[in-house]
Amino acid sequence: MNKKDYDEIFTKLLELFPNPDTELNYQTPFQLLVAVMLSAQTTDRQVNVVTDKLFLKIKEPNDVLKLSEEEFTKQVSSVNYYKMKAKHIRETAKKLVELAENKKAKLTKNEKECLNKYGYYLPESLEWLTKLPWVGEKTAKVILYVRYKHDLIAVDTHVHRVANRLWIVKTNEPLETSKEIEKTVPKKWKRIAHHALILFWRYYCTAKKPKCENCVLKKWCKNPILF
Description:
This protein has 227 residues and is mostly helical. Helices cover 58% and strands 0% of the residues. Helix 2 packs antiparallel against helix 6 (82-101), helix 10 (157-165) packs across helix 11 (174-184) and helix 10 (157-165) packs across helix 12 (187-203). It is globular and about 55 Å long. The mean pLDDT is 92.
């Protein structure tokens, strides 16, 4: 795939989704992190149903710690793997409080602004974010992409599927795709690539019944039946 192909593909995706962005609802950085953590193996729609009530109580890390483990677990019980997610979100909340209290930490400008505004900060590096419980590379990239506007492409099974269908990459698993797609997608499109591909999968290139007959990217689709 050459530069012209990428330009055409992402231009058409922008026509479908002029302002591609996360469909998770949140107001604070911590709420964003919680929503992304809850979204693993769970639809954004279901996460939003849960957080609609949860985020009335929880805006910052200390809000989680004020609730009992039992009460917080109950609040998220309708998402997949809720017990494990609840446990790790509580652990992450504790870790963020500890990071905020570390007076010797050297913070980036964005981290300082976050700390000054909210009393805590989300680390602005892949290395430090992935040290938080339940925060893998995909979740960390979403945070860096959404919160700190980094030009990264977070890859889950859906981005993996679409990227392979469109021959952007030819890989066997999301981790491979994550590495390859960072190399292949031109920098000018990285700012919108993640959510544009997510939304394209969600509304057009679905797993079971893709809308191939009306697909604006049909000419690039090399493997319409493999996934």
